[in-house]
Task: structure prediction
Amino acid sequence: MADDGQTTEPNTPTRRTLVSGGSGFIGSHLVPLLLARGDHVTIVDNLSTGRRANTPADHARLRFIEADLRDALRVLGPGERFDEIYHLAAAVGVSRVLEDPILAIETNVEQTAAILRFAGEHGPRGGNARILIASSSEVYGKSSKSPFSEDDDVLYGPTTVSRWSYACTKAIDEYLAFGHHRMRGLPAVAVRFFNTVGPRQVGDYGMVLPRFVGAALAGEPLRVFGDGAQSRCFCDVRDVVDALPRLLASDACIGRVFNVGSDEPITIAALARRVVDVLGSGSPIVHEPYAGAYPEGFEDLRQRRPDLTRVRAAIGFSARIPLDQTIRDIAAWLREGRT
Ligand SMILES: NC(=O)c1ccc[n+]([C@@H]2O[C@H](COP(=O)([O-])OP(=O)(O)OC[C@H]3O[C@@H](n4cnc5c(N)ncnc54)[C@H](O)[C@@H]3O)[C@@H](O)[C@H]2O)c1
Result:
């Protein structure tokens, strides 16, 4: 069996941890961290966007269950106990909601409702497990305020425009988590991820950085939609996952929501240029109308930057890995053929 060589302290009971969506992009970086600290980890993933190859095939303390989350929770026996749960499984991103709103909305709301109930009955001695819910910067909607702080009001478009349903599903997930915390004392934390990037993220669902890096490596044009002046803050996934167990372990963080990401903005046009420069690529950068990427009337936000005051105060969070390093690491991963 492969092992990371690290063990728990003698006489410390092994922590049992459940990771939904553990074979996805963020989950696949979190799981090795949990194994390295000695946890027994169970992944539930239906491999809809995740890959089995993203996590070790034969680790002694890793169990992989390929299933839809709700089905798996139903069949995990009443004796199954978890100390911590990281709920990452979701239909991720606005483009998946545009593709199939029913599936995306049902996945994001129903699976979260199911795992919160499960957490209330499958913790130590049949009580509560600590649970971290993955939310998104999309929750802020189209507010023009910057930076976004956790207690800000949110602003969405009309319900006839599917684009906003992703934000609403993540907001409902947060409401549910806080409801369980208030009514049942469930130790729940919600984390709003901003743009998270790194190896194993795939460009299929409109994720901009892997799309740019892939194009730069192939010598193809990097397609920037609109004028490219829209800006985002990109944070390396390894910095992001490092924060998650620390947030969940802190009693002061329970019942609260945290922005996690980078607060250094870069425009999409500058990002394209940076990718080309860092990789020494000869690819041209071309501008295309939004109509080429999204349905008519699609609203893209001009900027999205987190206020990180809360997460810095709570766990001393800081993003350490520079964007150029992330670009090089994504390129190395793609060169290995891991598309
Ligand atoms: N990557 C980002 O920048 C970002 C930004 C904001 C929020 N998030 C949130 O972080 C979480 C993880 O995102 P990611 O980027 O790793 O995406 P991902 O698509 O790589 O991971 C999601 C995982 O969940 C699995 N999954 C989906 N539906 C499932 C179901 N019904 N049952 C079991 N497994 C299921 C998928 O197969 C996949 O492995 C999501 O909740 C997402 O909304 C990510």
